[in-house]
Protein: O-methyltransferase domain-containing protein
Organism: Ascodesmis nigricans
Amino acid sequence: MKLARCMEALTVYEPLVKVLKEEVLSLNCTEATFFDIAGGSGHVCRKLSKHLPLTNTYQIPDLYPPHFPPSLPPPHPSPFTRHDFFHPQSPSPNTLCFYLRWCLHNCPRALVLTILRALLLAMERDPRIVLLIDEAVLP
C-alpha cells in the first residue's frame, strides 16, 4: 500500500506548475521555453501545457528519440532534439527553465557533477534560467 501511494504521488505536477507560474509572473514574460532534459515521451510537457498561462514552447533534449503508442500523439510540433546531457545545452533566447526529472539518482557523483556543469554553462549565459531538479528519494 505504501508503494502504491508513493507511485501515485510521483505523478503529481502541482508543485512544478506552481513554481513555474511564479517564475513566469516574476519575469513578466509572455513567452517561455521549458527544457525537459532527458524528458522521454514528453509527458511532463504535455501536462504543463494545460496549466501554464502563456505561449509556451517545449524542448525535450534526449539521447534517444521517443516511442509513442498509437493512442498518444507527440506533444507540440517537433519538441524533441537529440542531445547527450553530459554536454552543454544550447538554450533559446527565451528559456525559462531546465528541468531534470529522475536523471541523477542512478549516476555516480562524478557524472552528476558533469551533468550539472553542462547545464550551468548554459545558465551562465542567461541568469534568468531556473534549474529544477525533481528526484525521488525513498528512505
Summary: The chain has a mean pLDDT of 75.
